């Protein structure tokens, strides 16, 4: 069981933007892609969608870039995951037109639905702000120029 | 977010075996495959694994077949799902050797882990017996010879 890469990348983009220090308030997709070692093309789709959802703002022009469109405390993780996951069809019978012969009388669907709600309820308790309470450490990982690793001679 | 087909099929095989009326105590994989409209080859792998896990017993010979090796109340759904899911790596950073630059200081992993535990805790409250409390209806869906649908003339 896993979340989609789409959700994973969406969360990472938001973490990146929320961790950016004041002097790097506008960030470039290529820098996000480079930091995480993931495709710029994937991130373009993700950031476009995050923009449509109202979480990310794009400032155009030579000195443009991306920034959060709302405060981190206004981005609820449960709501975000509901918006970025394609669906929550835990098993075949969650589809509207299930082909499973048991669908009319199956108790499994209800049990899995209850478990899914418990999963999402936990995420509902958190906002992006809770995920960047250690903003300085995150910024240090994301925005510090890396020096070559120095190894002591053996 | 979804469970694997492997878990879906495992649950369906167990529901089938637990719903079987006394006179069909030993069932054939081909009948399970036919009832659900899924590949017999897939089900052979699933039933082999369920056998190794101690849930299913295979009686060999001409009148042989499959049956539950334990009582339905002894099959916990949470435990089963932990055994049939390949992993619970909700996002990339759940992997032991995560490539995500944030891994050392990321709070997201803990939040998703907490949500996953809430999901599994709900499943832990149920056994296979709870899923067949309407055994007669399930048996009627699975084991009744279907008559051709009769349509009233318009």
Protein traits:
homodimer; about 150 residues; mainly alpha; Arc Repressor Mutant, subunit A; two-stranded antiparallel sheet; 2 strands; about 50% helix
Distance between the termini of chain A: 44 Å
Count of individual domains of chain A? 2
Mean pLDDT across every amino acid position of chain A:
88
Low-confidence parts of chain A, pLDDT < 50 over ≥5 residues?
none
Largest sheet of chain A: 2 strands, antiparallel
Question: Helix share of residues of chain A?
Answer: 40-55%
Radius of gyration of chain A: 20 Å
Q: Reading side by side through the largest sheet of chain A, how are the strands ordered? A: 1-2
The helix/strand order of chain A is: HHHEEHHHH
Tally of helical segments of chain A: 7
């Amino acid at each position: 069981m896993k979340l989609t890469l789409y959700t994973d990348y969406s969360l990472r983009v938001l973490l990146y933007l929320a961790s950016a220090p004041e002097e790097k308030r506008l960030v470039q997709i290529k820098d996000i892609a480079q930091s995480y070692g993931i495709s710029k093309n994937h991130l373009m789709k993700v950031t476009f969608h995050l923009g449509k959802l109202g979480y990310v703002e794009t400032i155009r022009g030579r000195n443009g870039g991306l920034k959060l469109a709302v405060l981190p405390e206004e981005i609820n993780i449960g709501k975000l995951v509901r918006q970025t996951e394609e669906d929550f069809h835990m098993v075949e019978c969650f589809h509207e037109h299930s082909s499973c012969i048991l669908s009319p009388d199956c108790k499994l669907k209800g049990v899995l639905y209850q478990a899914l709600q418990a999963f999402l309820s936990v995420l509902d308790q958190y906002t992006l702000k809770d995920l960047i309470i250690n903003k300085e450490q995150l910024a240090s990982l994301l925005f510090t120029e890396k020096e070559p690793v120095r190894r002591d001679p053996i």
